[in-house]
Amino acid sequence: MPKSIKDILIEMKNMSELMVDLAYSALLFNSKDAAEEVIKLENKVNRLNYQIKKESLLAARTVEDAEKLTALLEVGEAAETIADSAKDIADLVLKDMKPHPVFKMVMEESDEVIMRVKIAEGSELIDKSLGELLLATRTGMTVIAIRRQESWIYGPDRNTMISAGDSLIAKGNETGGSLLIQLANGETKLEDLEYEDYTEE
Question: Block means of pLDDT (10 residues each) for the chain, length 201 residues?
């Protein structure tokens, strides 16, 4: 069954957001794996945008229909532009261009931080799913990728399990980052954060 235009737009939105986060992470941590994933996702976004155009042409029956669908097509084009820009950032990593020290300073002073944290033995996060952990609610940090030995998990969902030795790439605020580090190191328990208010918007 073909996807609806709405479903395609949702997928494009999610992909383009993930691409921006991954591209910045790739540059910050000099990760060619993450950069290559951005390139793959950009190709997918391009294909989805083509699909939106095709479905729109099939769906338009009147001039009024065409006018309404034009707005959706513009959203699709905007999502593809975001994806293209993320690809441009990822290309810097693949060309072995090291980030200027100013870039790291900008990232550190940004309202939203991107960080990498390793899960230590004894951490309460081990063998629990992201859905169980509710890290975004408890710490304000969202996991955008997981490095597990030699492989990556990009855009993990609520069913993704955390294992000892995993390296999490997460984004959020500085306070939440400190809490996530403590959880990852086994220095803090989940129950200690149960009633704290670090919920994201």
Answer: 82 92 90 91 94 86 84 91 96 88 77 89 95 91 91 91 95 90 92 58 40
pLDDT tens-digit map of 26-67? 988 888 988 999 999 999 999 999 999 988 888 888 888 888
The correct answer on CATH 3.30.70.1450 for the domain covering 111-185 is: yes
How far, in Å, CA of 71 to CA of 60, rounded?
A: 13
Which pairs count as long-range contacts for 53-60, CB under 8 Å and 24+ apart, including other chains? 55/2, 55/3, 55/4, 55/5, 55/8, 56/5, 59/5
Distance CA 147, CA 117 (A): 10
Domain assignments of the chain as residue spans, ordered by start: 5-101, 111-185
Beta bridge partners of 70: none
Tell me how far CA of residue 28 lies from CA of 9, 71, 87, 167, in angstroms.
Answer: 29, 35, 15, 15
Q: Do 143 and 169 touch, CB atoms closer than 8 A?
A: yes
Q: What pTM was computed for the model? A: 0.76
CA 109 to each of CA 113, 154, 173: distance values in angstroms, whole numbers, following the listed order: 8, 25, 11
Name the nearest CA neighbour of 116 among 141, 89, 149.
Answer: 141
The DSSP output letter for 97 is P
Domain 5-101 of CATH type 3.40.50.300? no
Maximum Cα interatomic distance, the chain, rounded to a whole number of Å: 63
